[in-house]
């Protein structure tokens, strides 16, 4: 009986360690996605949202959100992980802060919903909702902090990114579905 408990604890430790490695990896991928940047004003084009959605899909709601909280934590203490020249907590209070602050919620919602059904259309819907959260929070903060005009905020904080983010959305779904199948991931459905 002691051998079974010891084996169970060893397996649990390995799973926790693997989970933490993936959490840190997705925080790092989100950082790299911020550095693939086309600077536009007031919000740059980046690959961050793709990695936010994938973190939720692959890691699940809790670990996906944790990976994004770690990313935000690293940026808020001053490490240059955010897009653009500024770093630190002040970035979260600026015009693009709403997008960033929505990352954990987006990963959580995406991760939760992806586990409910196993189909391309459901994964697409789940990731679309995760992306919508980012745009909703981002556009609201952009309006209150910088633009002060809802029509302009929607135009410069959402509509300008629609085509770019649809491409990233379909890429995210394709990457997830392909890797999940290739790796034969069982996601506790």
UniProtKB/TrEMBL annotation:
Database matches in InterPro entries: BioY
Gene Ontology terms for molecular function: biotin transmembrane transporter activity
Keyword Zinc-finger among record annotations: no
Coiled-coil zones: none
Bilayer topology: Multi-pass membrane protein
Any one Pfam family match given in the protein's UniProt record, by short name: BioY
Subcellular location, record wording: Cell membrane
Keyword annotations of the record: Cell membrane, Membrane, Transmembrane, Transmembrane helix, Transport
Spans through the membrane: 15-33, 45-63, 96-114, 121-146, 158-179
Cellular component terms per the entry's GO annotation: plasma membrane
Gene3D superfamilies attached to this UniProt entry: 1.10.1760.20
Family affiliation: Belongs to the BioY family.
Protein name, per record: Biotin transporter
Organism: Kryptobacter tengchongensis
